UniProtKB/TrEMBL annotation:
SUPFAM superfamilies: Tryptophan synthase beta subunit-like PLP-dependent enzymes. PANTHER family: CYSTATHIONINE BETA-SYNTHASE. Residues 70-300 form the Tryptophan synthase beta chain-like PALP domain. One of its GO terms (biological process) is alpha-amino acid metabolic process. InterPro entries: Cys_Synth/Cystath_Beta-Synth, TrpB-like_PALP, TrpB-like_PALP_sf. It comes from the Bacteria. Keywords: Pyridoxal phosphate. This is Cysteine synthase. Its cofactor is pyridoxal 5'-phosphate. Pfam families: PALP. The keyword S-adenosyl-L-methionine does not apply.
Length: 452
């Protein structure tokens, strides 16, 4: 394969896998079960299962305590175990067809706090590139193991989840070597294109058979702020939809300019990312980090407690393995927004589980070390306090022009030091900037088809 690019799917095929050549589709589905390192797995980058249905869970109301349906798209079934593989592939394939990334010539850099880095290592393994993942040195052990398993090299920076600015500085240092190309998830727009088109339209499909078939609210905790781009597409179809960005209470950068350490891996990166279209962010909601860790413990290890509290056994078992910490954060944000917006039966709130439990056992081990006791009685208390009593506290309205202005100012503060011009940042204040970037999907699909 030296010098050749193993081409994968178009954007359209990631949204509609039924449009993939049937023989390739069948080979890909077989490889997903039998050999995750077969390059044919590029054709499994989709939210959909073998029956072309969006993989999702509608949470039991006994857990959420609200009448509205909380619909969660499941990211753990993507190759590499997280939906972040989608933007990693989109960024790499766009660079390939544009001729700016060349096999055998470029080393790929992946600045990340985890899942995107895993996705970069995985995609580079399938497409024949050397990968260096730059990330903080205190993420979960499972993340590092997975990156090494895929042949990625680690370049660790000091600090935790919320010190991602240091990983960006390190990436910029490594980028000085022209042989290095960064799949810069915080600033390159293929991340936005993938989520607006593939995730946004998958969310719209996911609610067709749920409640009133519409989306009243879309909730996402920004890391790179790629996923929240899905809200732009959802608002096109359901203009009444509200989009809520979630942050750790301990690191409330968007809401209040606050910065601090927290335990929700993958989000709350002390910045307003370049690709975050703040025009469409209606609310910012704060979630306590430890509620997410405790909530994960309850769902993963507290099946008997859930059943005792009224969740049907089948539903309690269905919840297991499907969430990481940020997934629980998204669920808690969805519950808070359902209450805040006074949503009733038939209304749908959609959110995302970026990954599954497979990369968080060490986080629960840490919870057990620092908690005096975790008995069934304690799990029952967590069930009531964290899920049923999730309230409308710490919900900030960002629909007013002055609130938007704060986010634009934050973006300038974060990105002017990295060489972006004020003119470029000002262009992002216009909806036409985002529409023009989104329209490039058609052009990239044509290029991929032609070169394939």
């Amino acid at each position: 394969m030296e010098g050749k690019i193993p081409f994968g799917p178009t954007y359209e095929e990631m949204l509609y896998p039924e449009k993939i050549d049937p023989e390739i589709r069948q080979r890909a589905l077989k490889a997903l079960k039998e050999d995750e390192l077969d390059p044919i797995n590029l054709f499994n980058i989709t939210w959909k299962d073998e029956n072309n249905q969006v993989r999702k869970l509608v949470l039991p109301p006994e857990l959420t305590g609200v009448d509205a349906n909380i619909v969660v798209l499941l990211g753990r079934y993507f190759p590499s175990g997280s939906h972040k593989v989608g933007p990693a592939y989109a960024t790499l394939i766009e660079g390939c067809v544009d001729g700016v990334i060349r096999p055998g010539e470029h080393t790929i850099l992946g600045p990340s706090t985890g899942n995107f880095g895993i996705g970069v290592a995985y995609i580079c393994r399938l497409m024949g590139y050397r990968a260096i993942v730059i990330m903080p040195d205190s993420m979960s052990d499972e993340r590092y193991e997975r990156i090494r398993k895929y042949g990625g090299e680690l370049d660790l920076t000091p600090g935790t989840e919320s010190d991602v600015i240091l990983t960006l500085k390190r990436t910029y240092e490594l980028k000085k070597d022209p042989k290095n190309f960064a799949l810069a998830q915080f600033e390159l727009l293929p991340n936005y294109r993938f989520h607006r088109y593939v995730t946004g339209n998958s969310a719209i499909e996911a609610v067709r058979d749920v409640g009133n078939g519409r989306i009243a609210c879309f909730v996402s905790a920004p890391g790179s702020a790629g996923t929240i781009g899905a809200g732009d597409e959802i608002k096109k179809v359901f203009p009444e939809c509200k989009v809520a960005a979630l942050e750790p209470y301990e690191c409330s950068t968007l809401a209040t300019g606050g910065r601090g350490q927290h335990r929700i891996e993958g989000i709350g990166d002390k910045m307003c990312t370049l690709i975050h279209n703040v025009l469409n962010t209606d609310f910012v909601v704060l979630i306590h980090d430890d509620d997410c860790v405790k909530g994960l413990k309850l769902i993963q290890d507290g099946t008997e407690v859930l059943i005792k509290m009224g969740v049907k056994e089948e539903k309690a078992l269905e919840l297991k393995d499907n969430f990481g910490i940020s997934g629980i954060c998204n669920i808690l944000g969805a519950i808070k927004m359902a209450k805040f917006l006074r949503l009733g039966p038939g209304d749908n709130v959609v959110t995302i589980a970026t990954d599954g439990f497979d990369r968080y056992r060490s986080v629960l081990d840490d919870l057990e070390r620092r908690t005096l006791e975790i008995t069934d009685f304690v799990l029952e208390r967590w069930y009531r306090d964290i899920f049923l009593r999730a309230n409308e506290e710490y919900i900030y309205d960002f629909r007013k022009p002055e609130a938007k202005e704060r986010l634009f100012a934050q973006k300038e503060q974060d990105w002017l030091p990295f060489g972006y011009t004020k003119e470029y940042l000002d262009a992002m204040r216009s909806p036409s900037f985002w529409e023009d970037e989104y329209a490039k999907i058609k052009e990239y699909d044509e290029k991929i088809r032609a070169l394939r």
